[in-house]
Structures are given as structure tokens and as C-alpha cells.
Amino acid sequence: MKLTGTSLLVVAALLVGLAAPPADGCTTFLLNDGRRFVFGKNYDWDVRSGMLIVNQRGMAKVSVADSGGNPARWTSRYGSVTFNQFGREFPMGGMNEVGLVVEVMWLEATVYPAADHRATLDNLQWIQYQLDTATTVDDVLASDDRVRIVDGAPLHYLVADATGKVATVEFLGGRMVAHTGSSLPVAALTNSTYDGSLAYYERWPQGLGSTTSLDRFVTAAARTLAFADELPADALAYAFGTLSLVAQPSYTRWSIVYEITERRVHFRTDRLPAIRSLDITGLDFACKGPVRVLDLGTPVSGDIFGHLVPYTLEHNCSLIEFAFRNVPFLQGTPQSVLEEQALYPESTLCVGLPRIRRPSGRIGGRP
């Protein structure tokens, strides 16, 4: 099945013309004490539906965003675990098997690049592309020479890797603007530009006690700096505690923590507050078997490995239908667009790749 991407660009137009976040939504940060790298994310949005998806390596893909006649083409080098709300292959964020994490937030100031020679991607598929192909933050930043995001919802990203390197990725004035190293003194991001957030933090280092974007940035920034100084014994509890401090009761749907060094994913939802976990080193990412998923509304706790089920087209249709029909500015999206987005994964093809070997020797099967 060849997708033209035309219908999905209708969605992009809706997002640009009508979208407004339900509040100042989403918070991300990286805790780093030199030996532990722990990434936190609150997903704040209108609807709570979602699906955890185990994405396979060795899948050949063609981007849906081909309005410029040059869709991106790639084969997934790495398997990953993602959190999806608008369909498989269009994640809100996730971590791949070599420890790269990419998470998304709203940013009204976003202006994506104008049409040029680069291959094109949807702004959520950009996340999957990075998880499929990149090992490090540097790889993600270097991809800007090859691919560009077409117009869509205004987003920016926080990216971290297994070395502890972290970067903000924004598109301002039609070009990528990244902060990393010395230009990223605090590894946090909310819904304002990084430069604007940092300027506010320097002026109001204690914040004003609200849950606006800038005050959540101050809280997250202070907690990331304190983590490196205080060295708390339980980094996971510290991360979830930080997410609680920056939560918005009416809008925080998912709280996610990635223990990057250990390759473990932990999450809870507003309806199911017990923490659920998945050790991704125990997953088989080979593309010969079925894709496995978990509906985030499934009432389970603890280790979710045994609760993953084979993906079906019905899973994707239900996920997409609920999300689009319950986000106010997307309710008028034509049914044909939803159907095309649900069918997109059927256009991917398993071509196979060797498994990725880590020193622990655990990739490829549960111990």
C-alpha cells in the first residue's frame, strides 16, 4: 500500500489552524549525577487514551509527509518502546534499545523549515525516525542535514542518550535550534523556548508557585540540579516525585520515567496511579514476530511484560478514533483521514537486521 500523505496533511492543517493546548502542557527533564541518567516526562493533554508499543528493528518505512515529493525512507536499525496516542508509528515519545530517549512538548513559537532538498517527515513520525535510526544525541542533531519536518502542530523535543548527553531541539524561524553542553545549564524543558525559560529561571529562581510553563520549568530545573548535589538513593522515586510537583491535576494524563542506563521504562496514569514497569532488555525486537502492545488503560501493575499482547489493526483504529474524536480541535477530521492513518503501519515491511548486542547479553529474549 502506497500512502500519498495528502490526507495526513489535512490533519496538519487542522493542527496549525485550530490547535491550542488545553493548558501549558507537558514537562520533561533529565536527572544526571554522573552515573545515573533518569529521564522524566509528564504528558498533559485533553484525553488520556494511549498505547505502549514495542517497535521492531529491521522495518523498512516511507514517511507519510511527502508534500514536497521527497518522503523520507529508512529501515529501523533499533527496536524501541513508545507511548502513542494518534496511532502506531506516530509516538508522543519513547526509548530505543541503545538508550536514546526522545520526548515531545507543545511550543507555540515553533516555525518548521521551508521546503528544500531534504526528505520530509511528520512531526510525530520524526520521533519514530530518530528512535529507529539514532544512537546518540549527536546523531539526532546531525539528521537535520537529511530530513525536515513539514508544517504541523508546533512542537519541540528533549533528547537524551546512554552517555548522559542531553539536548533541546526546537524549530524557530524555520531552522533547528539546539541547546546542549554548556548552552544547556539545566536539563529541563516545558512549553516555552529554552532561552526564554532560562531567562525566567535566572530572574525568578524560586518561581512563583504556579503550574504555568515557566514556573514548571523552574521547579524541574531546581530538582535536576538538586539531584546531582544530593545524590538521593532512590532515583526512580525522586523522578516521580518531581513529576508530581509539576503535575497539572486536570490535564496530566501520563507520568513516564526512563532509567536510561538500565533500559527500564516506568509509567503511571491519572486513572491508574500504581507504577508499571518494563525492562526493555528482555524484549525481542526482531521483526519476524508480532508487534506487541499494551493499552494504557489495562488495569495491571508491576512488571507488564506478561501483559503485552499482539498488535492488531483494530487496536490502531480504536486508538486513533478515540483520540481524534475527543480532542476538540480534531473532532471534525474526516473519517477517511483516520482510516489512512490507521492503515499506515501496513505499508511498512520487515526486511530484517541482526540483533543489537549489549555487554549484558540480554537483548533478544527475556532472561
The strand line-up of the biggest sheet is 13-12-11-8-7-6-3-18-20
Q: Please give the share of residues in helix.
A: 10-25%
State the order of secondary-structure elements, H for helix, E for strand.
Answer: HEEEEEEEEEHHEEEEEHHHEEEEEEHHE
Tell me the number of strands.
Answer: 21
CATH top level? Answer: Alpha Beta
The number of helical runs is 8
CATH superfamily: Penicillin V Acylase, Chain A
Please give the radius of gyration in angstroms. Answer: 19 Å
Oligomerization category of the chains in this entry: single chain
Approximately how much beta-strand content do the residues carry? 25-35%
Question: What can be said about the biggest beta sheet?
Answer: 9 strands, antiparallel
**Which class do the helix and strand fractions yield?**
alpha+beta
Parts with pLDDT < 50 across at least 5 consecutive residues = 1-19, 359-367
Annotated CATH architecture: 4-Layer Sandwich
Outline: globular
Compact description:
This protein is an alpha+beta fold and 367 residues long. The chain is 25% helix and 27% strand.
